[in-house]
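Private note to self, pasted from the team thread so I don't lose it. Backbone tokens:
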């Protein structure tokens, strides 16, 4: 109707209740409104539609054909409004479907992922877990923004400022080596011995980011002799078995590798610093119940680890 006052959701809810209850009195009581107001809403919609909507049949009110036809569209419209602007539903992991999409620095795979995936499969059995590695060419920040990823687990600082960051854990640094390496006969590794050793390292992310170990050493004016660099992190322990190479890594990673391969480890010199591990996600997912639950699981797994 031209010039009519716009409809508001309060009036739509009153109308729906009227259609379902077919009583002005019961609608007013249920919605804690006055009967005159409910009658006013009914009159307004009668004027707008040109249909009485509710008509008297003896001692009761019954719906007109048009009134009956209005119920489902009203329910659908009000449900859509509630979904759009109401509080989001809590995440129910036991009944959830879909995917958790995680990007992980490859050094984290043996530290966090086994326990995390077991935890997710137990708590959210209907959700698949997709994990991809983070390499130099992968735009993980863009993937988070485009909703191609839920979270990133990393061991490098300096994430883009528009990403949310939480420190997962700080790990001691150790030297990992084969059973025949000279370090295997020592009780500790001096800085002099460490710098004189032949080192194995993963390929640096970039020239400006040589990695946390070499960044710590550079800050102390030191440089180790990296003789071999590998692009595949999980090949590194196998390269230590029969050679004279040393790999500097986190205590948990070394402990795991020593449990499955004939390797040994000792604490690295203090100048190598420590390793900090981070959880990254985008601001767009900060309040999302599903993403929040996933982050909580990752943080819980990280806190359960002990160096």
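Design output:
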């Amino acid at each position: 109707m031209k010039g009519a006052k716009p409809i508001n959701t309060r009036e739509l809810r009153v109308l729906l209740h009227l259609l379902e209850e077919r009583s002005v009195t019961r609608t007013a009581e249920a919605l804690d409104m006055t009967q005159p107001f409910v009658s006013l809403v009914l009159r307004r919609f009668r004027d707008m539609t040109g249909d009485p909507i509710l008509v008297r049949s003896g001692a009761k009110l019954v719906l007109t054909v048009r009134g009956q036809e209005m119920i489902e569209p009203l329910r659908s419209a009000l449900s859509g409004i509630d979904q759009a602007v109401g509080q989001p539903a809590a995440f129910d992991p036991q009944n959830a479907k879909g995917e958790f999409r995680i990007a992980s620095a490859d050094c984290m795979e043996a530290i966090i992922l086994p326990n995390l995936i077991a935890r997710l499969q137990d708590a959210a059995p209907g959700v698949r877990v997709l994990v991809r590695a983070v390499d130099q060419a992968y735009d993980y920040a863009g993937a988070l923004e485009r909703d191609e990823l839920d979270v990133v687990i990393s061991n490098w600082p300096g994430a883009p400022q528009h990403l949310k960051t939480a420190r997962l854990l700080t790990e001691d640094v150790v030297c990992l080596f084969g059973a025949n390496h000279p370090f295997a006969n020592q009780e500790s590794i001096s800085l002099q011995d460490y710098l004189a050793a032949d080192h194995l390292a993963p390929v640096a992310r970039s020239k400006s980011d040589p990695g946390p170990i070499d960044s710590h050493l550079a800050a102390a004016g030191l440089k180790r002799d990296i003789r071999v660099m590998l692009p595949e992190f999980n090949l590194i322990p196998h390269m230590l078995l029969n050679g004279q190479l040393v790999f500097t890594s986190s205590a948990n990673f070394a402990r795991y590798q020593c449990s499955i391969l004939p390797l040994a480890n000792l604490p690295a010199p203090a100048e190598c610093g420590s390793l900090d591990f981070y959880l990254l996600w985008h601001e767009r997912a900060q309040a999302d119940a599903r993403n929040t639950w996933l982050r909580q699981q990752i943080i819980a797994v990280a806190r359960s680890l002990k160096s």
